[in-house]
């Protein structure tokens, strides 16, 4: 993994294992045929994660553009971790927390599937080392943290609900290529705010979510593909994204494969410990 410049952060708090893990998949109807509160909560969570992912991807791209060509230039890919804590005052009774990791630009940080595969190995090693020392590893630290930004502290009882990827590569091209064109005299009318970005997300209820962030998308085209509904009141008879992880080109499918390995490693450790 590439070395990183120190990031300013607050001391992470290792959250106590929650008494209950995230609830089972939604789509469970109430006895009267209505939509359950749990289904509405998960649908709302998906929408919140779409918003967070788009916002983080935009910030990632702006920061990468500003640091392009400098010693602390950012790589095109990052990882997002999602947690929820109980918040009775909120509409659906939860609060979403997002932490992330960005890498400095280097040959090792350019290929997304390989980056995810390497990170999964690092996480597995961190879990094993902590266990051998009689400790319990957590991705936010305080030892062996895998993040360097976002919500660096969590309330007690916060539960892991998913992992995602932010990437500056898109169907417009690879980030390094696009960043160079922005600085070419013939492309002076194009800025970083014209570029697209992507996010991939897996959640503990089985949700698979892809966001194609397009600043010039027509109104109503949100660029979201999901194997679960974002609107629990809408009856959907056919979902073309039911098998989302099997769709796309080789890089896209490999990204889903490696992100799934990382998700299973994190969930297997964090949620198994929560049930113990």
Description of the molecule:
- The chain is an alpha+beta fold.
- It has one domain (37-275).
- The protein is 31% helix and 18% strand.
- Strands 3-2-1-4-5-6-7 form a seven-stranded antiparallel β-sheet, with helices on both faces.
- Strand 5 (197-203) and strand 6 form a beta hairpin.
- Helix 2 (112-132) runs parallel beside helix 4 (250-275).
- The chain is globular, with a radius of gyration of 19 Å.
What is the element layout, followed by pairings?
Blueprint: H1 37-67, E1 74-86, E2 94-104, H2 112-132, E3 149-150, E4 159-167, H3 175-182, E5 197-203, E6 208-213, E7 224-226, H4 250-275
The residue fraction in helices comes out at 25-40%
Number of helix segments?
4
Number of domains: 1
**Poorly predicted ranges:** 1-32
Rg, alpha carbons: 19 Å
Global shape: globular
Widest β-sheet, arrangement of strands = 3-2-1-4-5-6-7
* Most strands sheet: 7 strands, antiparallel
* Measured distance between first and last alpha carbons: 32 Å
The ordered string of helix (H) and strand (E) elements is HEEHEEHEEEH
Q: How many β-strand stretches?
A: 7
Output the structural class: alpha+beta
Task: Give the DSSP E fraction (strand runs of 2 or more residues).
Answer: 15-25%
Mean pLDDT score, rounded? 87
């Amino acid at each position: 993994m590439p070395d990183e410049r120190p990031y300013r952060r607050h001391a992470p708090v290792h959250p106590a294992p929650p008494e209950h893990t995230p609830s089972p998949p939604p789509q469970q109807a109430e006895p009267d045929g209505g939509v359950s509160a749990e289904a509405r909560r998960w649908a709302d969570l998906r929408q919140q994660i779409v918003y967070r992912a788009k916002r983080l991807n935009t910030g990632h791209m702006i920061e990468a553009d500003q640091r392009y060509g400098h010693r602390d230039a950012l790589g095109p890919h990052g990882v997002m971790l999602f947690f929820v804590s109980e918040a009775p005052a909120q509409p659906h009774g939860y609060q979403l927390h997002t932490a992330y990791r960005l890498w400095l630009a280097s040959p090792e940080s350019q290929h997304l599937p390989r980056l995810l595969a390497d990170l999964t190995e690092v996480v597995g090693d961190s879990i094993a080392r902590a266990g051998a020392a009689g400790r319990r590893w957590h991705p936010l630290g305080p030892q062996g943290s895998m993040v360097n930004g976002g919500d660096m502290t969590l309330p007690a009882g916060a539960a892991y609900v998913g992992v995602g990827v932010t990437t500056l590569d898109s169907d417009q091209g690879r980030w390094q290529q696009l960043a160079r064109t922005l600085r070419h005299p013939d492309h002076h009318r194009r800025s970083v705010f014209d570029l697209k970005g992507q996010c991939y997300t897996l959640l503990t209820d089985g949700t698979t979510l892809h966001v194609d962030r397009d600043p010039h998308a027509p109104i109503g085209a949100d660029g979201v593909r999901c194997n679960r509904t974002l609107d629990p009141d809408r009856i959907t008879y056919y979902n073309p994204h039911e098998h989302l992880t099997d769709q796309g080109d080789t890089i896209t499918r490999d990204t889903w494969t490696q992100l799934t390995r990382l998700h299973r490693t994190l969930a297997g450790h964090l949620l198994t410990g929560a049930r113990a």
